[in-house]
Amino acid sequence: MTTLKLLAEKPNVPTTTAWYLADLGEARGRQELFTKQSPQRLKVLREHALIESAISSNRIEGVTVDQSRVKAVVLGKSLLRDRDEQEIRGYRDALKLIHEQGAKLTISEKTILRLHRLSRANIGDAGRYKEKDSDIIEKLPDGRVRVRFKTVSARKTPAAMHKLIDAWDDNLDERVIHPAIAMAAMNLDFLCVHPFRDGNGRVSRLLLLLQCYHLGYEVGRYISLERVIEENKDRYYETLEQSSQGWHEGKHDSWPYINYTLYILKTAYREFEERVGTLSTARGAKTAMVLDAIERLPDSFRMVDLERAAPNVTRDMIRVVLNRLKKENKIYCEGYGAAAVWRKGSEKC
After folding, report:
1. Which of 98-107, 128-137, 181-190 has the lowest mean pLDDT?
2. Do residues 273 and 287 both lie within one domain?
3. Could you tell me if 266 and 20 are in contact, meaning their C-beta atoms sit under 8 angstroms apart?
4. What pTM was estimated for this model as a whole?
5. What CATH code is carried by the domain that includes residue 132?
């Protein structure tokens, strides 16, 4: 039994979830006010979110690109060097499809297969359900492996996906549970079905973004949900494992993962309002992005860490901000060149 079906029979919402829903309702209510701000500010945020989403969602799955190639791969049309770059640009293409045509894209098997095909850059079995059973395996530090979750078999996957889409449509028609709860529940069910040989996590995040748009939560256009998920990756895996136990028997506790998903959305809205409320010009937007990235980084960091956290900002602009903070005694530097380490706080005498 899917989570959506289970919740429809027992729609008892925990207090924590109710608070998340109230906060999200208020944030969505203020959304139009913030999106009427300067078009130039929002353009910078959209471009930044596109880059962060493509990089973060793939990086969660171990697909990476050299920092110097980020803009060329995500924003450019240059030739690609390897499969990782192909998949990152493919994810970019899937994002652009959602951003530009989200209102026309139905939540259907056809759409899900299309998102998978794009995000896997039409490589191999992209756009096709798995043909062999594939469980979720965890590699332990000592080299051993364990099965974290036994997914739906390849033979039963098409039927499971058909039922999942039907359950989503039924919920939208009957509104037994709040749509945001249903969205998070479907995301959990999708990951438990695990319909593809590879790329399930990436498609789940694309599907989440698309469903957010359908429900009126537009924040993913300006703040990368994928980057927020990456920053809370440990909690992502923890709640997913908690909520998947007993899923096949319909005896699982879906609320840890549902609350995590709502938390991600709430965090994105808070960051969006903070950024839009402080930005004044395109240059100011870049400065604010660097400052925000520094705040998110540990007390000690290197230039490469900061470039990774603010991929849409040039190294020259980052240096300008670092030098300003250094003059204000808010950070200081130890070492030189690539080995230099920046530390928060004033330099110890």
Report:
1. 128-137
2. no
3. yes
4. 0.82
5. 1.10.3290.10
